[in-house]
Amino acid sequence: MDFSELIKSKFEGCGEEGPIRCIFFCEFHDTAGPIISCAEPDNYISKELFDSISVYIITKAELQRSTITVTLADHKVLGFPVGIFDKKYPRNAFLFNLCFICDSNSRTVHYEPVVTKLAEYLTAMEIESSFLSNGASKLKPILKQVLEELNTKGECALSQGPIATHLKVVRIRNDPLPVADHQVPILIKELPEQQWDLTTQQVTSYIDGFNHISRIATLSNVDTSLVKACVQNLIYYGVVALVPLFQYGNVYSTTPKLKLLAQNYDLQERCLKYVACSQRSLPNLRDVFRIYAAMTRGTTVKDLCLRFDPPNLRINERKLVQFGILEGLIRRVHKYPVHLGDNSDLQKSLSGAVSLDEICCSTNINTQSLEDQLERDHNVLVLWK
Questions:
Q1: What whole-number distance in Å separates Cα of residue 222 and Cα of residue 224?
Q2: Are 104 and 73 in contact (CB under 8 A)?
């Protein structure tokens, strides 16, 4: 089998995280060559398939003590080849590998530290008591425990005599999407206790859930690109989320998740505390629900304020919108202007692909002024979506 058919690009198969299908221990036998000595479950991988990839599993010294991934049509094999060199072994060396098998389209990068640590654990046991070279069949209960507990709990504690280890699968976060100038960052948890860089400290003081990226850059006197990078980093660590720019002319619509507000007590409690004008006097859940339910296409936040007078109901309408967006109870309905005439200057942005928020932010034009200008132009249509 050709090497190029076995080892695919590191960017292939980076799909969803999947379970471990099998764990097997293989070694180089002094007469039989590479063999699988123990596996859980048994016979998950055929001898023919193993023989075809064994050269990449039981490796030469140059590739030992590094993670190796072999991607096949149906499987992805992840291992950490080890060589222990001592005159007590036949050929003066004991070569082995402890491998995980996952589906070929599964993401396996989060298992790499686990495979490495497990290989180190087995190495220590071999050096201590020849645990592996005296017969690997006693590995069976260990492999079974590791397979079951990593798949169900994401961690596993092992102990063999004086040697112990704790395996834990650390989930790898996906890289956050690029941050746009008009988007608004909001802190969703307290900043972790760590030494943040000066730029982050400078930027976070202006993150209030209402300032968009461009305004934060102006207020903090930090370049916009640095503000974006900082916010993107905070999103990666789960400290910040992005919400649409709040304006009283905004239109929102409810989502199917709004029904959870009528059913989930914990959500109700968090909502009332979040949207209250004062923590000393919480609003009535019925009033909060009524305002959310009235959010329909064509109804602006200003219309809702005139109709319900939220402050009189002890509700902060800006926080009400924030909570609804963060919890997915409502969504913003954006305006996308389209110019049907000849394009020039501002009209080039009126393609239907750029929202009114983006246009206002990039041109530094007040939303109301831009809407008035577009309303006077009979060649402009506005799409709501």
A1: 6
A2: yes
